[in-house]
From TrEMBL:
Family assignment from sequence similarity: Belongs to the LysR transcriptional regulatory family.
Keyword terms: DNA-binding, Transcription, Transcription regulation
Keyword DNA-binding set for record: yes
Keyword Transcription: yes
GO MF entries: DNA-binding transcription factor activity; transcription cis-regulatory region binding
Species: Roseibium hamelinense
Residue ranges occupied by any HTH lysR-type domain in the UniProt entry: 4-61
Name of the protein described by the UniProt record: DNA-binding transcriptional LysR family regulator
Entries under SUPFAM superfamilies matching the protein: Periplasmic binding protein-like II, Winged helix' DNA-binding domain
Domain of life: Bacteria
CDD domains per UniProt: PBP2_LTTR_substrate
Listed PANTHER family: HTH-TYPE TRANSCRIPTIONAL REGULATOR (PTHR30126), TRANSCRIPTIONAL REGULATOR LYSR FAMILY (PTHR30126:SF99)
């Protein structure tokens, strides 16, 4: 197992940032030969060269890229540890959250209110696919993540938040009011990155004899901005499928119609955190707020 010297690693990270040995030496109050010596010792520990030199400039080798990524992760964790040890207040510090884009439309306005009440509270939010949310919580990039299943991971605490309905959303003007697949195809699907997976689940349950797969649905328009998906639906252009969290924040609810299907489909919501992280006051504050927001989705 390679144990990298933190001093040499710090020098290397600054060198990567500045791109220049002299600037690195000035920033770290070292001599230029001292910077070079730290680099050589780090390369000796790794067993591979970390840079390609091109005159006075350089580029990173694959090993250099890997060491830089490791060093950046180490600095991030060190910063978080220092913040935790120095103070533990619910109204200050940084909290990183991630969820699906649909849940983000419902959750982020509530996070804005939290930041307005606590000016020293910094919240970073990322809308991401479920696998990225899970990986980010495991490796410490996110303090809290919301996904649709219990990953049963040994490094995580997982709390069931409840469930939300998967909604077939139609224009209120009646153009797509028919509930058969033929009626829906005549209207046209407003597609987004998750819609085909949603359609496979929802339509298989409600149209078992007629549905032949989401790849056969007639697409009228495609969009990947979660905040814009319902605009063409409200305008009567087509229908779409979204979790309820993606529908509730839309400001013109009177222009939408949610179909009352025979087989209602629900998606689970789970809150993930690294083991022990909920003991940090600011993270617990946001976790409690997320539970309250998820409660609004109860059918």
């Amino acid at each position: 197992m390679i144990m990298l010297d933190s001093r040499w690693l710090t020098t290397f990270l600054v060198l990567c940032e500045t791109g220049h040995f002299t600037n690195t030496a000035n920033r770290l109050h070292m001599t230029q030969p001292g910077v070079s010596q730290h680099l050589r010792k780090l390369e000796a520990e790794v067993g591979k060269p970390l840079i390609f030199q091109h005159g006075k400039s350089f580029s990173l080798t694959p090993a250099g890229e890997a060491v830089r990524a490791l060093g950046q992760a180490w600095q991030h964790e060190e910063t978080r540890l220092r913040e935790t040890l120095m103070f533990d207040r619910a109204d200050s510090g940084r909290v990183a959250v991630a969820s699906s884009g649909s849940f983000a439309t419902l959750l982020y306005p509530a996070l804005i209110e939290e930041m307005a009440e606590a000016p020293a509270l910094e919240i970073s939010y990322e809308a991401a696919p479920q696998h990225r949310v899970l990986d980010g919580v495991v490796d410490g990039r996110f303090d809290l993540g919301i996904v649709g299943y219990d990953p049963d991971h040994p490094r995580l605490d997982c709390h069931y938040l409840g469930r939300e309905e998967l909604c077939l959303v139609l224009p209120q003007n009646g153009r797509c009011r028919g509930f058969s697949l033929q009626d829906l195809d005549a209207c046209g699907l407003i597609a987004h990155p998750d819609v085909f997976a949603y359609a496979d689940v929802l339509f298989s349950a409600n149209f078992p004899s007629a549905f032949r797969g989401s790849d056969r649905l007639k697409v009228r328009s495609t969009i990947n901005q979660i905040s814009q998906i319902l605009e063409p639906v409200a305008s009567g252009i087509g229908y779409t499928i979204l979790p309820r969290s993606g529908v509730l924040p839309y400001p013109q609810q009177d222009r939408l119609f949610i179909a009352d299907l025979n087989e209602r489909i629900y998606l689970d919501l789970w809150l993930l955190s690294r083991r022990g992280r909920l003991s940090v006051a600011r993270i617990q504050r946001i976790a409690n707020m997320i539970q309250g927001v998820a409660g609004k989705l109860a059918a």
